[in-house]
Amino acid sequence: MPTSRRRPDTLAVHAGSPRPRVLGAIVTPVFQSAMYEDEGSGVYHDIRYIRLNNTPNHLAVQEKLAALEGAEAAVVASSGMAAITTALLTFLHAGDHLLIQDSLYGGTHAFVTRDLESFGIGFDFVDGDDPASWQSKLRPSTRVLYVETISNPLMRVPDLEAVVGFARKHRLVSMIDNTFASPINFRPIEHGFDLSLHSGTKYLNGHSDIVAGAAVGSAELVSRIKRRLDHLGGSLDPHACFLLERGMKTLALRVRRQNENAAAIADYLSGHRAVERVHYPGLASHRAHERAARLFDGMGGMLSFEPAGGEAAAERVLAMLTVPAVAPSLGSVETLVTRPALTSHSGMPREERMALGVTDALVRVSVGIEAVEDLLEDFGKALDSV
Q1: Domain extent for 269
Q2: I need a labelling partner for 305 at 20 to 30 A (CA). Which of 95, 125, 222, 321 fits?
Q3: pLDDT in tens, 212-268
């Protein structure tokens, strides 16, 4: 069976593994070497060097990720933000303009609102649910349209099909942060997006022990990002590449369990007397549920909710939980809970944050792979204490 037709479960395990195997090793070894013998190509970006993200460990994990996304190429970076900022700065230059979804990860929001201006780049936020409004924000200098598959932390799902159509019509580079969905639940390249971006720290690695990022797409676009990344220096260490590749081997198993657990928890929370609202695309009450059901292979392991009683109630719930850890990251085998107002979106002015719906009481849950019965019992006891 051709590699391109193999299922994600098989690709996660086998894609990218060196052939022939290195001295017969089933697992790709860690090539802890900063440089390699010069092959004499005379092209700077072809020199085998850690900073150029092209050592054997880089190549293995990049090939695996590209195969999982159904793309031609991928490049890994030192963090998700390194991948996001480098991708934006590859296709946006002084005088250019960006259209970007209004509901965003706090780090991306901060970069756009605080740093882009210093590069001479303009931007406008757009409502991902209202494609009819995008035209009014378009400028002759617009070059990129950027969205998130499932937004952080309100789990909004923009009109992804409209994003692709609008970007193609106006010759924009369409970028999507696919971190929350992962390639198991959604593969943007197969749906027409130009670039899929990831914080590899999250689901791709899945074990809370590295920081990494990635950009995936056509060979031509990824090559341009890699060259900018080479100059900016956001390279990923070979040992981190090794851990990322190892983590991705269980990606399909982990994500499907997280999908199941999150769906059960979201359903439970939506019926609890102490919960005012739940944000999860798998719920029929979610405003983009039909869209998500049509496009996604799974609804993801991320959800957020607001307990009745406001900020004090949210703090009480977090203090009473015993299985989840209170921590700011996501996508790992452990269930993690946090208040975005204090972590991922703490740098956003409160007025802006509240206007987007990121309230002081909002609790974000990254559902792990624990027994769902234990998680439901734990959330029940914590909420009953409110």
Answers
A1: 252-384
A2: 125
A3: 999 999 999 999 999 999 999 999 999 999 999 999 999 999 999 999 999 999 999
Residues 293 and 233 in one domain: no
Q: What are the tens digits of pLDDT across the range 315-338?
A: 999 999 999 999 999 999 999 999
Which of 48, 49, 102, 105 is an active site residue? Answer: 105
Q: What is the DSSP pairing of strand 122-126 with strand 142-148?
A: unpaired
In the residue annotation, 105 being an active-site residue is answered as: yes
Per annotation, catalytic residue among 9, 36, 51, 360: 51
Q: Answer for the pair 360, 311: CB distance below 8 angstroms, yes or no.
A: yes
Concerning whether 209 is annotated as a catalytic residue, the answer is no
Domain co-membership, 342 together with 265:
yes
CATH number at residue 159: 3.40.640.10
243 with 308, same domain: the answer is no
- Per the annotation, the verdict on 256 as an active-site residue is no
| Total domain count, the chain | 2
12 and 125 share one domain:
yes
Distance CA 238, CA 306 (A): 41
254 is catalytic: no
Q: Where are the beta strands (DSSP E) in 54-194?
A: 73-77, 97-101, 122-126, 142-148, 173-177
57 and 178, same domain (yes or no): yes
Determine contact, residues 144/98, Cβ cutoff 8 Å: yes
**Active-site residue identified among 177, 230, 237, 378:** 177
